[in-house]
């Protein structure tokens, strides 16, 4: 039987055991040479690939700035920024590190700020504990907050409080980055208190970092401390600084010359805190001694200057000055004044200025001849202006407190140093140098005995030179120069030189520019007040400058600066002719003086506004318009009275004979005297002597009036007024007693005098005919000479003038004395009636006499 070869097929399916290996993607190593290709790998789903790509890209970016720029231009930010939130820690580390490598590029930083990435990065810094992430996150914030936008976004996060605790981190890079963030934050002058105002803020971590081995951390800590101590608002920061051992750490750093690079910043911080009483109390003495020792060992002039500047700040406190005075170190400071280095000598002079406020220290410095050394520095033209200015400031402080030093300065061979400095006043010279020099002159001018020794033509010329216009604002210099001139004005030589150099015109020019400086306007008003008070001749100069009209038009200026109201009043009171012309009245307290004059015809307001009031000196020398007539009263006592016989003989004497005997024309005195020319009015002098004799015969006082201090016997006012009125009426009743005085006879008489004198200035004593105005004028002059308060008033029409007197209503006994300046006119004197009559003010008779009805 033959067997079949047919096989049986199994129902089970065949399994391919190699299928997995066939479908799996085999790993491979590819050599990538393009950063763009590597950037694309950041989109991978595999963490290892992302890590490898991040590592490679970070290594590439860290090599040079151009590489980081290439990565940005290839669009790495699109794939990199999402990786900051990756769940894998290592991916997050490398992503943060790579971003910190390229975020210094302006376009990268701009994108991060536009996308508000400061907040998420700060949250990473706050929540993630990994040191690597913290390091590079803080690095990014440090870079972003350099701009105002980054700073603003940081403030909006409300996470600033996490920065100070991170200063205690064990990672030095985190410390450095957090310090940089804090420094960027407090750079804004309005935000420097953001850190110190935090509830948990303490300065101790910053103090501890001063001893770090890393110079960058030390520098940043010192920069932050410098800002915080410089702008501290209360004692809390100073107290924390003291409790944290800040002073001792600073001083220990100064002892270590291996840390010389940070010594300058340490000295800056010490200078900020040494004026605090709490710190000075405990550390001042040892600290100052160490600073002096430090200056002996350090050769760097910059550091020596900073150490002296710290000592200068120490001298700003009473305790600091006391410690220096008791330490015996002042002689060492004074010996450093002549130092040639720029800045060091200036710092030493600041110390001298501060120490001068302590009596004991000042005496020690004077014993070391400090004034001479300061003058030497000031007088050295080869020195820098900083040193010369500081020396001038120190000298000013000393002169304020020691009169002997003032005497030494004016008697030394270097007393011309002030005008030498001021003569160099230009745009290259510091304004402070001119200001302090003027202040020194002001102090010297406050001592009468010393003032006489310093006034010279060169000094006054130099002070006036401070008023020249420069490109920059020189108003503080003008203010100081004006104050210096005010201190010297009481000396006749000063006023003499002011006339030579047109000083009044120079200062008035600065005033009329209406500078927006109230202090200068105040000082200028004082200057004009003193000028006119000491020498009324300056009033004529002011009138020629149209100063009076200008001041009257500047009501706002007088309201803003009341000193100008006083100056205006002084000008009017010192120059009564213009006051009478402008107001039409001289009050009881306005006492006329020799050479007082009035115009025969009243001037209109338009004429006064156009500055057409006649100045006597100018009127005489230029022989002005003969139509304009002036009445002048000259009763100078320096001319000896000559005997011309009785009044009868005088009336018959010709004017020519009088002129020949008395040199009728004006005799010239000193060319800069206010009264350049004087009439020899012997008749007026004889009037005064005769009237005094008449009053004495009637038992009445004839003492001359005093504006402020005189008193008036109230019971004799009426009697005096009638006697003087009768006397005036007799002298001006005309040449013929039977002929009534009229305007026609007055004009004829005045014209005769004008022809004989060859001038239109008529001495009132020579007038034989007078109407209301002329008689009132003579009455006022005589009344002031014999102590009767009288007011001279000018009417608006017909050249009327009258006199008003104050007749007190008093009981028969006792006879009280009334203060001159408190009297008020209440009667009008009728000088045209015979006999002379008194009318109550505002009565019908008084109104008729005054031409008011």
From TrEMBL:
InterPro entries: ARM-like, ARM-type_fold, Armadillo, Armadillo-Ser/Thr_Kinase, EDR1/CTR1/ARMC3-like_pept-like. The keyword rRNA-binding does not apply. Residues 718-809 form the EDR1/CTR1/ARMC3-like peptidase-like domain. Signal peptide: none annotated. SMART domains: ARM. SUPFAM superfamilies: ARM repeat. It holds the Pfam family EDR1_CTR1_ARMC3_pept. Gene3D superfamilies: Leucine-rich Repeat Variant (1.25.10.10). PANTHER family: ARMADILLO REPEAT-CONTAINING PROTEIN 3. This is EDR1/CTR1/ARMC3-like peptidase-like domain-containing protein. It comes from Cuerna arida. The lineage of its organism: Eukaryota, Metazoa, Ecdysozoa, Arthropoda, Hexapoda.
